Give the backbone structure.
Amino acid sequence: MELYTALAVPILISTLWLLTSNLSRSAHPHFTNKSIVLLIAHPDDEAMFFSPTLLALTDPALGNHVKILCLSNGNADRLGQVREKELNSSAEVLGLRSRDDVLILDSPDFVDGMNTKWGTEKISEVLRQAFSPALKKSGGSDDAPEATINVLITFDHQGVSSHPNHIALFRGAKAWLSGLMKGKEGWRCPVELHTLTSVSIFRKYISFLDAPLSMLLGFFGGIRGSARQHDNQERSQALFVSDMLQWRQGQRAMTKAHRSQMRWFRWGWITFGRYMVVNDLKRQRIDRQ
């Protein structure tokens, strides 16, 4: 009996993991043939927090063009140049087409640190210059809002780890899109903003076991939200669950690419952390200024 149990448990775990991963793949057909930008604060954010999203959306079959915009080079420990190279290497592991699809800023406006404040308007201006350069030249409400990307993905208002730089990205992204839609009544925002959902400390460390719970919460959330959605093609939530091979790929992005960051506690994160396996994104409403 003990031998049977010992054999059955890993089989059940593997089956559950494979099932949730396959179900999540079939649940997001919306992300196809899109120009997508992942907005992060530091090199290694893409691997530690967003690897399931990147590994899913860079699938060549989806036809997406995914890029990363990192607002700092993580120079808090004077390793900025090293970490820039590490981010480029990690992006290749996670499926980006080329190193040209990674842009890393090194600006005094965005200094890496828990005690540094990044200005909302400064982040908004970076995004405007990068993805809606014609914004200040645009005309009145009769002109459609324009942008060079379709989807922007970043942290939510809690920043997952409560890091102030992460939280600043959320505020800056919303400010940019609100400015883009200013005076544009009747027009739909050309850029979808999707944010990574922050969860409790318990859920952060239950790895793939959080996938069924996220799926269940997303299902009931979708039922509640469907009554408020006029466009059935819009999904307010998206769930990405890495399979075992993708999980190992995300781990390699940390252990092989971000070697300077592999301190003892990060081994626990990449082994048990749910964000290495599960990403649930929520589409944000954009308020017009």
Q: What stands out?
A: The longest strand covers residues 35-40.
